[in-house]
Amino acid sequence: MNSESNIRKILLNEKWNDLFLKFSEKCFACEDVMMWNAIEKFKAIKSEKQRRELFYNICNTYIRLGAPLELNISRKDFGIPEIMKTFEALRESAIRGSSGSPSGTDSPKKRTIFAITSEMFDRIQTACEHNMLDNYTRFQASYEKQLEKELGVLPIMKV
Amino acid sequence: MGNIVVSPHDKEGQHHMMATPTSNNPNGGSAATAKNKSEITVLLLGAGESGKSTLFKQVQFFHGVGITHDQERIELIEIVRLNVLENAKNLVAATQHLNIPIEQPENRETAKLIINSLNTNDLEDPSWSKRLYSLWKDAGIQKAYENREKFQLYDSTEYLFENLDRICSDKYVPTVVDVIRTRTKTIGITDMKFDVGDGKQLRLVDVGGQRNERRKWIHFFNTVDAVVFLTSLSEFDLNLYEDNGYWRVKESLRVFNEVVNNALFYKVPFVLLFNKRDLFEKKIATKSFSKYFSGFNEAEEKNPVACIEYMTKLFLNEITEHPLDTVSVKTLSAIDHDNSKQVFEEVKQFIMTQQHRE
Question: Where in the numbering of this chain does the RGS domain appear (chain A) (predicted)?
Answer without folding.
Answer: 6-68
